[in-house]
Design brief:
Length: 99
């Protein structure tokens, strides 16, 4: 089983940290840590070279060749899929994508 290198941009790490910080501010320390760990595990699983992903339905991201995948039905992970690597560009709320 081959794996592609997964590169996470700084803006993605910051977006995951923002959600985690919000959960911590609500007093859910264990949930915040669990969320960030599971988010990074999910993103690292995108590197499986046996899988392919579809283009985003959002017209702007589709034209740029970005691919999207839903995470927990609430968030969308936007990335570029290459033969040897995956570059994760955005981690955003799904309701902020208009199509």
């Amino acid at each position: 089983m081959g794996f592609r290198q997964v590169i996470i941009r700084e803006s993605v790490a910051y977006a995951i940290a923002e959600v985690s910080w919000y959960l911590e501010s609500e007093g859910l320390l264990a949930t915040a840590e669990k969320f960030s760990n599971e988010a990074y595990d999910f993103i690292s699983a995108l590197g499986d070279s046996r899988k392919g992903y579809r283009l985003c339905r959002d017209p702007e991201r589709n034209l740029m060749g970005y691919k999207c995948i839903s995470y927990r039905k609430k968030y969308t992970i936007v990335f570029v899929e290459l033969d040897t690597e995956i570059i994760v560009c955005e981690f955003i709320l799904s309701k902020l994508i208009y199509w």
